[in-house]
Amino acid sequence: MAKNDYKTKLVDYFKKNLSKGYTPESLKIALIRQGYMKHVLEEALDKANKELAEKAPLLKTKPIIKHEIIDKNDKLIPVKKPFWKRFF
Question: In this predicted model, what pLDDT tens digit does every residue of 34-64 receive, in sequence order?
């Protein structure tokens, strides 16, 4: 029971700090320096990544990116295609 609780705490630690923007390598290095075993950390990191991936939303469509150039008077300026793109 204590072993599962130990790994659960590591998984929670990884999930919390990965969501804050820390890199997995920096977290592993910090924990190794504190005396944690590398293979235990890698298992916990894998489990944390899987749990975070399950919660991530699925993108079904690609976003449409539209570029427009507007002058000082809020008028749309037409964009000409480059010479080589006119043939394709």
Answer: 999 999 999 999 999 999 999 888 878 887 8
Sign of CA dihedral 22, 29, 55, 63: positive
φ, ψ (nearest 5 deg) of residue 68 = -135, 145
Residues contacting 19, CB < 8 A, separation 6+: 52
Q: Percentage helix, strand, coil, to 5, in the chain?
A: 60, 5, 35
Contact 56, 19 (CB under 8 A): no
In the block, residue with structure tokens 């923007």: 21
